[in-house]
Write a structure and sequence with these properties.
With 150 residues, this protein is mainly α. The protein has one domain: Ferritin, CATH 1.20.1260. 84% of the residues lie in helices and 0% in strands. It contains 5 helices and no strands. The N and C termini lie far apart (55 Å). Pfam families: DUF2383.
Length: 150
């Protein structure tokens, strides 16, 4: 059992669970049904990534993380408070989604800097590419919501 590998994977599992919960929370706050569907698709993708990482933790002799992080919980509460104060317009919600994806990008970059087995690094790299795509897609959606609000 390699504690550093398991710790790194468990950190990413928390990140994925934070993303899943964050996207679900944001989906509840948007009015546009197509956007809601898109955010729920991202939530499902985060969930699938967490399951894949959990399997790697088990394969490396560890116990997978089962919950999201405290910072993820705090971020969702911040989204709730902010949307009460500002109203739940789609642009504001998408700004929060993008902020969450910024955190995910950082977590994956940190993981990729570590000396990990090739099988683990390959999965993390593939998932990181998905995080980058999600981030860019969220940014485009946010920019469209901003333009529509003008």
């Amino acid at each position: 059992m390699d504690k550093d590998v398991i710790s790194t994977l468990n950190d990413l599992i928390e990140t994925c669970k934070d993303g899943e919960e964050g996207f679900k929370s944001c989906a509840e706050d948007v009015g546009n049904s197509q956007l809601k569907k898109t955010l729920l698709t991202y939530a499902a993708s985060c969930s699938a990534s967490a399951r894949e990482l959990s399997a790697l933790v088990t394969a490396h002799g560890g116990n997978p993380e089962t919950k999201s992080s405290l910072s993820g919980t705090l971020h969702r509460r911040w989204i709730d408070i902010k949307s009460l104060v500002m109203g739940k317009d789609d642009e504001a919600v998408l700004n929060e989604c993008e902020r969450g994806e910024d955190v995910a990008k950082k977590s994956y970059r940190r993981a990729l800097e570590k000396d990990l087995p090739l099988d683990v690094k390959a999965v993390i790299e593939r998932q990181y590419q998905g995080v980058l795509q999600n981030h860019d897609a969220i940014k485009i959606l946010r920019d469209r919501a901003h333009a529509a609000a003008l």
